[in-house]
Amino acid sequence: MGEYTSLALDSADRPRISYYDWTNRDLKYASWNGSSWDIETVDSAGEVGQCTSLALDSAERPRISYLDWVNFDLKYASWNGSSWDIGTVESGGYVVGYTSLALDSADRPRISYCDSTNFDLKYAAFNGLFDIQTVDSAGYVDEYTSLALDSADRPRISYYDSTNDDLKLAVTCVRLLPGDLNGDCYVNLLDFAELADQWLECNVPFDPSCMQ
């Protein structure tokens, strides 16, 4: 019955759950009203609702990112107070797994997800329209994404690099620092360790290949 679940709590700690109804192939949403569950169908157009991610906005209205398994599209649903507004974030490719949704301080949706056409990690930010960026395209990096926004609404994305069997973190820095070799927005001993590791591997300080 319920697959690809995502849970959020409202200000009264009441649970809200988005999930895929495998029996009917629909996206559903369940909310606890204090004595029973209110369950409604969000989207039933085709086979929809896999890989859901749920967030509540500042008015505690639900927002859900999910997949359209028939068209291999990334979709987004938001409750406007009386009905669900449903739209397509990305289409024309092969988006088949792993979405993560967060809302910024203005309740604008941000979604990290996996492009299985190119095996890339992508990020979609709504600013009137969805602006889509490729975050990482080095190898097969299209699995198990999780998104959070920092206090300045900058995205942080954890994900799995199956090419190298690595856990990775993608961050957005306010500005680029020349000494930030590992891309974590700081210049510290970790960057020195990165430099030392490269230095020892190359062992020819003025060889141009050492600077790559």
Describe this structure in words.
This protein has 212 residues and is mostly beta strands. It has a single domain, classed as Fucose-specific lectin (Neuraminidase, 6 Propeller). It contains 1 helix and 15 strands, in the order βββββββββββββββα. It has one helix at residues 189-202; strands spanning 2-9, 15-21, 26-32, 37-43, 48-56, 62-68, 73-79, 84-90, 97-103, 109-115, 120-126, 130-136, 143-149, 155-161, 166-171.
List key phrases describing it.
Neuraminidase, mainly beta, 7% helix, 212 residues, four-stranded antiparallel β-sheet, single chain, globular
User: In DSSP terms, counting alpha (H) and pi (I) runs of 4 or more, how many helices?
Assistant: 1
- Approximately how much helix is present in the residues? under 10%
Principal-axis shape: globular
> What is Rg?
20 Å
- Number of structural units classed as domains: 1
Uncertain runs:
none
Give the name of the CATH architecture. Answer: 6 Propeller
Q: CATH topology, anyone?
A: Neuraminidase
**How far apart are the first and last residues' alpha carbons, in Å?**
51 Å
